[in-house]
Design goal:
Layout (H helix, E strand, L loop, with lengths): L1 E12 L2 H32 L3 H6 L5 H7 L8 H19 L15 E7 L6 E3 L2 E4 L3 E6 L9 E10 L2 E12 L10 E7 L3 E4 L10 H4 L1 H13 L5 H35 L2 E5 L3 H4 L6 H7 L1 H14 L3 E5 L24 E3 L5 E3 H22 L7
Parallel strand pairs: 8-10, 10-11
Antiparallel strand pairs: 1-5, 1-7, 2-6, 3-4, 4-5, 6-7, 8-9, 12-13
Helix pairs in contact: 1-4, 6-7, 7-10
Length: about 375
């Protein structure tokens, strides 16, 4: 048994008064971030060439900024402190070269959020309501229960489109599932049309929600372009467009959750290929399909679900030639992207995606056996 930290997302239904306070908190958190970021950039421009002066500067903190802007006392203090801590972490990541330089936050961003932490049980569930600092009891749609004995550590309130959500960070004692005995295994080959082809010959048949909505998105975008910027009609149309994008995103996530859950419940070993999706997306004709299918998100869902269930997810080496290799005789041969059927010199003919999926499944079994039993297990 070990302590596990996990996030659970729920829909919030705040009152008009609570919405006003949430919007005020978004604004204060944004101002806190932007002021601290401006200070850091200004000080670096002044003293960047003088390390002693740069290191000796006493940077602003939330307390000093709130003294300058008293209206910030009306919102949750933890949210302002968290913004300060997040900026410090963002700069640490930037200096470590793991992330880009922090940017200013805009009120025009359709997604706004702030994070608050639990102190003295100020964040808690009370029936169908969630108690939040300053907001009080907020109606919450609890579509699934939290783990038994879980402790609420933090809450991130987010506005996406016209809807409000809360992401609850909880800590709970997790009983590590024993590794399941290997009975059923499958390999998945990524496809631009349909998400994946498995080694049993089945396709995911992903509906391509974004492509299906392109006409509707184009129409709403054209209406927005004709509105006077920042007018009431412009803001209404912008919210309408954001809501449509949110709907597409929710459709995609729902499909990926259900597909990954089916695979994890059905198979003990799932093998997938490792892809550089960022590099692939640079290709003009692939960009929309890669963004629409979200194979990276699908992979993350498989990762945590297989871990929770005590099952295995094997990622095949990125340079393993699954498409070029014949699943019948093991020979490699060149195959153009336009060729949808694999024809081997040995006489084997098969759909190229199915051929690749079988190779991925076999390679996953070899990797699993090597990891579990050593190299002697594959001496054959």
């Amino acid at each position: 048994m070990n302590e596990t930290m996990k996030g659970y997302v729920y829909r919030l239904k705040p009152t008009t008064k609570q919405i006003d306070l949430i919007q005020q908190t978004f604004g204060c958190v944004r101002k806190m971030w932007n002021m601290l970021l401006f200070e850091r950039q200004s000080i670096y421009e002044l003293y960047g060439k003088y390390p002693e002066l740069l290191n000796s500067h006493d940077y602003l903190n939330p307390k000093r900024i709130k003294e300058e802007f008293p209206y910030m006392y009306d919102v949750d203090s933890q949210s302002l402190t968290t913004a300060w801590l997040h900026l410090k972490q963002a700069y640490s990541n930037f200096f470590n070269k793991s992330h880009d330089e922090p940017k200013y936050k805009s009120r025009h961003n359709p997604i706004q959020s702030y994070t608050t932490h639990t102190t003295n049980d100020n964040i808690r569930l009370e029936g169908s309501y969630l108690k939040l600092p300053k907001l009080g009891l907020v109606k919450i749609k609890l579509h699934r229960a939290l783990p038994q004995g879980s402790i609420l550590k933090a809450a991130t309130i987010k506005k996406d489109g016209k809807h409000y959500y809360v992401s609850l960070r909880v800590e709970y004692s997790h009983i590590t599932q024993p590794v399941k005995a290997l009975e059923k295994a499958i390999g998945l080959d990524y496809t631009l049309q349909g998400l994946y082809m498995d080694s049993e010959g089945h396709q995911a048949n992903y509906p391509n929600y974004y492509k299906e909505s392109l006409k509707k998105l184009k129409k709403e975008q054209q209406i927005l372009s004709r509105r006077v910027k920042e007018s009431s009609n412009y803001l209404k149309q912008k919210e309408k467009l954001s809501t449509l994008h949110l709907h597409i995103k929710n459709q995609r996530k729902d499909f990926l959750h259900k597909a990954s859950r089916y695979l994890v419940n059905t198979y003990d070993l799932i093998s997938i290929e490792t892809l550089d999706l960022t590099e692939m997306a640079k290709t003009k004709h692939f960009r929309k399909s890669i963004s629409d299918t979200s194979f990276g998100l699908f992979t993350r869902y498989l990762e945590y679900k297989t871990k929770d269930e005590g099952k295995s997810l094997i990622k095949i080496d990125q340079y393993y030639p699954s498409t070029k290799t014949c699943s019948q005789c093991g020979r490699e041969q060149k195959i153009r992207l336009s060729e949808r059927t694999y024809n081997c010199t040995c006489g084997h003919v098969m759909d190229r995606d199915l051929n690749a999926a079988i190779n991925i499944g076999v390679q996953g079994l070899i990797n699993y056996a090597t990891k579990a039993y050593g190299t002697d297990a594959i001496a054959w």
